[in-house]
Amino acid sequence: MNKAAGPEGMNVTLRQLRAFIAVAEAQHFTRAAERLGLSQSSVSTLVRELESNLGLRLFDRHTRMLKLTLAGAEILPLARKALADLDSVLGSSSQLKTLGRGRVSIAAASLQAALLVPRAIVRFNARYPGVKVTLLDVSQAEVPELVRAGEVDFGIGTDGGTRQDLVKRRLLNDSFIVVLPPGHALTRKREITWHDIAPIPLIGPPPGNPVREQLDFALAREGITLTRSHEAVLPLTIVGMIEGGLGIGVVTTAATRLAEALGLVVRKVTRPVITRELSLLFLADRSLSPAAQNFRDLLLERPQELAEA
């Protein structure tokens, strides 16, 4: 039985409050009992218990008349408000559990924010139209930091850190590619290797970028070092610099559609083929809301399909 603790350990139950309100509105114990689906004796007992708990007489009882006392008249609007507030809380919690309402917040690196997450939001909204989804499009390095700060439910990106405060769930893998202006000498080669690219200054992310760190680490094991002539944080900027004639660049396959839309040539780089893991990033000690859990599950259903659609 739900109880509200009052002064000096006094306990008032919700059943007592409901019975009191029903009797006050019906001005009759029997009619109130019919409204509540209880026996008349049960309603009388609940009201007497409430009066005992409060130490107040709430009704003046006469043979053929029932009337609120002054104390009862003052308490009635307070009891109504208490029950209305509780019903609102219970209704909201029920809607949250059934995903009739709620919110999901996601941080995603710019390309995923532009090309992958919107499709997921459309599918999610079709299933759960009452849930609001907020997307923060940020740089790759900002994604894990927003998750750590608790500003979003989860992130989509690459985390190359060694800290154990994040939980990672693999979403998909993409590989590193070279983006070339039309007519570049490398476009005539049937296969482009990292040794072909190494002597050419590239456009790419700056030091500290997790995608660059992953690529440089993998190439270092092969004895290959890349040089950068220009640096930019966002893949869109890198692709734009290539299209503008500043050189060639290395990005991941996530940028393929963007590069091809600008008329650039995209080629996979081999020997070795280097892949990057794109992950869902969660704060280890924080539980996801039902809405966030369902959005996570939708992303994990067919992530490659979302990326390639």
Topology, please?
Elements: E1 3-5, E2 11-13, H1 14-26, H2 29-36, H3 40-54, E3 59-61, E4 66-68, H4 70-97, E5 102-109, H5 110-115, H6 117-127, E6 131-138, H7 142-148, E7 154-157, E8 166-180, E9 192-193, H8 194-197, E10 202-204, H9 210-220, E11 228-231, H10 235-243, E12 248-252, H11 256-261, E13 265-270, E14 275-283, H12 290-301, H13 303-308
Parallel strand pairs: 5-6, 5-7, 9-13, 10-11, 10-12
Antiparallel strand pairs: 1-2, 3-4, 7-14, 8-12, 8-13, 8-14
Helix pairs in contact: 1-2, 1-3, 1-4, 2-3, 6-12
Which class of the largest domain in CATH terms?
A: Alpha Beta
- The CATH topology of the largest domain: D-Maltodextrin-Binding Protein, domain 2
Helical segment tally? 13
Order of H and E elements: EEHHHEEHEHHEHEEEHEHEHEHEEHH
| Number of strand elements | 14
> Roughly how many Å apart are the termini?
53 Å
What portion of the residues fall into strands of 2 or more residues? 15-25%
In CATH terms, what is the architecture of the largest domain?
3-Layer(aba) Sandwich
- What value does the Rg take, in angstroms? 32 Å
How does the helix and strand content classify structurally? alpha/beta
Please state the average pLDDT score: 86
Biggest sheet details: 10 strands, mixed
Fraction of helical residues: 40-55%
Number of domains as seen in the coordinates? 2
Uncertain spans, ≥5 residues at pLDDT below 50? Answer: 1-7
Shape: rod-shaped
